[in-house]
């Protein structure tokens, strides 16, 4: 298949086939990526619950860094897909070149800034004196080497936006396998503790990046980074962040919420913070199939919207909703009926297990409906309408979750913190549905594509008769 055919098939091939081809590799790779983060926590768990709590404190900072990288990559991917759909390859080439410029600028600005204020940032995110030193050991290395994360996440998303899911899958697998191998060597073999876990992650990302660089320099990619396009182009940067800012703000808001939750759990002890950290790690694993599905949907929606094939856009959305709902129902079953085995993977402490079991069960209450919300947020980004996705996410995180987590513990204790998750989920899901109906109507996209297909088939039969 030629490079042009690979992007053009986004507008012609069967949606379910495209979704399978684009989503399965990224879903599998993201599952492995989430799994190695879980294994990271399992290894650290042998050091003790304070080490798990320390990683839970650092997690929001990692999340902010990842949010900026993923947001940049998703924004660039969306604009590249729309440019290719509109047959504007030069604009797509300029966009991938600008992405390299943004990678350099982000690394030069964010890393020194966070390292300079590391102690107060960790304290704000809930680090108690008992775990501050461990959190600082881990965070120092992770943040210093986060330029490897920036490059990896930005360009994996861009390559996927061209319609190539295999290379991002290979890249993430290389990083995941590398981290799984290096973790025990650095943590136990070299007796580096949490520092070893951080160093293993950075080195694994670096190995993965070498693979990406070789691919980007080859003739196997339709897009090319050009030296004369590296000077900041504010028109393209605006296009990137008009969509990517949604991811950045959504995930940054999530980091603020995690920090707030850590602080809300502080009165209940470091074990409660560790329980939150364990739950969030498995939570990430459960959500990865939906996120991988969304990664596959973005180029399909973006290309077909750019090509004005609106019925295919609708079909892609409903196909995604069907599969994502199945994934999240399976996640609900796992969290509701098997929380004890999940908790036992990380710790043998009975008090920590009890806390984690409650966290799993309450967090999963709204899971069956969340899959559709994720797909609709991806739809907003794919058509370049980031504001609805941004509003529904920010209201969930800041407008619903934080107030609920502030009020409910006063009446239900630590259970109130866990209850805040489903309360905010239900409210934000309802809001997303309202936004989706509005965007469908404004863009004249059929809400349910099968009605259009039936009408077209009927008209065809009438003409033939």
TrEMBL record:
One of its GO terms (biological process) is response to antibiotic. It is found in: Cell membrane. The chain crosses the membrane at residues 20-39, 51-80, 100-118, 138-159, 171-190, 196-218, 239-261, 315-339, 359-380, 400-421, 427-449. InterPro entries: MATE_fam, MATE_MepA-like, MATE_MepA_subfamily, MdtK-like. One of its GO terms (molecular function) is antiporter activity. Keywords: Antibiotic resistance, Cell membrane, Membrane, Transmembrane, Transmembrane helix, Transport. Its main location: membrane. GO terms for cellular component: plasma membrane. Signal peptide: none annotated. It is a multi-pass membrane protein. Coiled coil: none annotated. It holds the Pfam family MatE. Belongs to the multi antimicrobial extrusion (MATE) (TC 2.A.66.1) family. MepA subfamily. This is Multidrug export protein MepA.
């Amino acid at each position: 298949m030629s490079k042009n055919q690979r992007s053009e098939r986004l507008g012609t091939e069967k949606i379910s086939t495209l979704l399978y081809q684009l989503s399965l590799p990224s879903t599998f790779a993201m599952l492995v990526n989430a799994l190695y983060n879980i294994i990271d926590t399992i290894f650290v768990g042998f050091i003790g619950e304070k080490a798990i709590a320390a990683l839970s404190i650092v997690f929001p900072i990692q999340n902010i860094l990842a949010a900026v990288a993923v947001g940049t990559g998703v924004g660039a991917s969306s604009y590249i897909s729309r440019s290719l759909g509109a047959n504007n390859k030069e604009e797509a080439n300029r966009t991938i070149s600008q992405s390299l410029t943004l990678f350099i600028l982000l690394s030069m600005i964010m890393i020194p800034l966070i390292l300079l204020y590391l102690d107060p940032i960790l304290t704000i995110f809930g680090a108690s004196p008992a775990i501050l030193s461990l959190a600082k050991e881990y965070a120092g290395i992770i943040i210093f080497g986060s330029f490897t994360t920036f490059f990896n996440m930005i360009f994996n998303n861009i390559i996927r936006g061209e319609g190539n899911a295999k290379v991002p899958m290979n890249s993430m697998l290389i990083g995941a396998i590398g981290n799984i191998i290096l973790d025990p060597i650095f943590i136990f073999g070299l007796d580096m503790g949490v520092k070893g876990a951080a160093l293993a992650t950075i080195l694994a990302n670096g190995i993965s990046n070498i693979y990406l660089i070789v691919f980007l320099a080859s003739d196997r990619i339709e897009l090319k980074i050009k030296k004369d396009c590296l000077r900041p182009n504010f028109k393209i940067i605006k296009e990137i962040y008009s969509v990517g800012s949604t991811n950045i703000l959504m995930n940054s808001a999530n980091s603020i919420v995690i920090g707030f939750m850590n602080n809300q759990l502080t009165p209940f002890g470091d074990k409660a913070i560790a329980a939150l950290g364990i739950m969030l790690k498995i939570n990430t694993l459960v959500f990865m199939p939906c996120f991988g599905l969304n990664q596959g949907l973005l180029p399909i929606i973006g290309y077909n919207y750019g090509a004005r094939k609106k019925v295919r856009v609708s079909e892609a959305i409903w196909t995604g909703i069907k599969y994502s709902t199945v994934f999240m129902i399976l996640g609900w079953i796992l969290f509701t009926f098997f929380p004890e085995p999940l908790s036992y993977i990380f710790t043998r402490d009975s008090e920590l297990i009890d806390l984690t079991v409650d966290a799993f069960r309450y967090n999963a209450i709204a899971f069956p409906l969340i899959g559709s919300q994720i797909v609709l947020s991806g739809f907003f980004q794919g058509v370049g309408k980031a504001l609805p996705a941004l509003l529904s996410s920010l209201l969930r995180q800041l407008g619903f979750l934080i107030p609920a987590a502030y009020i409910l513990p006063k009446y239900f204790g630590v259970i109130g913190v866990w209850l805040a998750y489903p309360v905010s989920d239900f409210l934000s899901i309802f809001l997303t549905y309202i936004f989706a109906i509005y965007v469908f109507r404004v863009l004249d996209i059929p809400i349910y594509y099968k009605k259009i297909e039936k009408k077209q088939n009927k008209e065809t039969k009438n003409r033939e008769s």
